[in-house]
Design a protein that fits this description.
mainly alpha, two-stranded antiparallel ribbon, 4 helices, extended
Length: 116
């Protein structure tokens, strides 16, 4: 990759990245993410192909909840308005990490949604 396409990082950021990469747990996590890359792409395609027009996201939410449970998230449920919530408790006293996503699409009901 040529230099002009490389992200620009400050020296401080580069040092922080190097420090993080030196941590065995971080390296293990990055390696796992690489190993599971195709699996995650497949899951994205699977979710994308479940029809979910606005206000009719129930089936996609159900599939997403199943994927979370299959990934080992022990506490997965839907709230009263259909949001899927998965909770995986950490092992320390650090801050809470919240990840959110929007699962509906703007395609009207019946639109073919095959990923290509």
């Amino acid at each position: 990759m040529s230099q002009e396409h490389q992200p620009i990082c400050t020296q401080e950021t580069q040092e922080l990245i190097a420090k993080l990469r030196a941590c065995p747990a971080v390296e293990k996590g990055l390696a796992q993410a690489e190993e599971q890359h195709q699996q995650r792409i497949n899951e994205q395609v699977q979710l994308t192909e479940v029809p979910a027009p606005p206000f009719h996201e129930e089936e996609r939410a159900k599939v997403f909840a199943q994927l979370l449970a299959a990934a080992g998230i022990p506490d997965v449920h839907q709230d009263q308005i259909g949001n899927v919530i998965g909770r995986l408790k950490g092992i320390g006293n650090g801050p809470t990490l919240v990840i959110g996503a929007h699962i509906d699409t703007v395609f009207k009901e019946g639109t073919p949604i095959k990923v290509s």
